[in-house]
Specification:
This protein is mostly beta strands. Helix content is 10%, strand content 32%. Strands 1, 2, 3, 4, 6, 7 and 9 form a 7-stranded antiparallel sheet that branches. Strands 8-5-10 form a 3-stranded antiparallel sheet, with no helix packed on it. The longest helix has 17 residues, at 2-18.
Length: 172
């Protein structure tokens, strides 16, 4: 029986010595999760970017630089390149709606450019200028305009040119 007590005592001492190995090996903590749901962005196109009717340079002259500002005004690097009876020039106009006081970024064209294509193989590369590159959407709405400029060489094919101007507004 003494042997049995010795064995039980040895086992108890071993269990006591090893007990710290069975100490708590996990811990738990809690945190909160928060989020805010905001209104989606919308953008609506208004007036189109219109360059009016321009006269290309005579052979051996030019190129001219044709510009429509973000306020719709037109300019040329030479006199008499715009026809007085021309359709009016205009900047493109866009309206934005979204969450009030949220910061947004505004981008126009593809890296600030667009291409207008003519009746056959002619193209015109337009460099775009936006009146704003950011907006904080005061009262949940804002607007901006887009003008542009292009080089008009004496070799430019005559005819009507059209293109698609894209504008992208993104929440920051």
């Amino acid at each position: 029986m003494k042997s049995f007590l010795k064995i039980v005592s040895a086992a108890a001492i071993t269990v006591a010595a090893v007990s710290p190995a069975f100490a708590q090996n996990t811990a738990t903590a809690s945190s909160t999760a928060t989020g805010k749901v905001i209104s989606p962005l919308t953008i609506t196109a208004g007036a189109a970017l219109a360059f009016g009717t321009v006269v290309k340079p005579a052979t051996g002259l030019g190129p001219y630089t044709i510009t429509v500002g973000t306020n719709g005004s037109h300019a040329s690097s030479t006199a008499n390149s715009y026809l007085p009876s021309s359709p009016a020039t205009a900047a493109a106009a866009f309206s934005i709606t979204g969450e009030a006081n949220q910061s947004t970024s505004i981008a126009v064209g593809t890296a600030g450019h667009m291409t207008m294509t003519g009746p056959t193989t002619g193209t015109i590369d337009v460099t775009l200028t936006s009146s704003k590159s950011t907006s904080t959407l005061p009262s949940g709405a804002d607007s901006f305009t887009v003008g542009g400029s292009f080089s008009l060489p004496d070799t430019q094919e005559t005819g009507d040119y059209t293109g698609t101007l894209t504008a992208v507004v993104t929440y920051n």
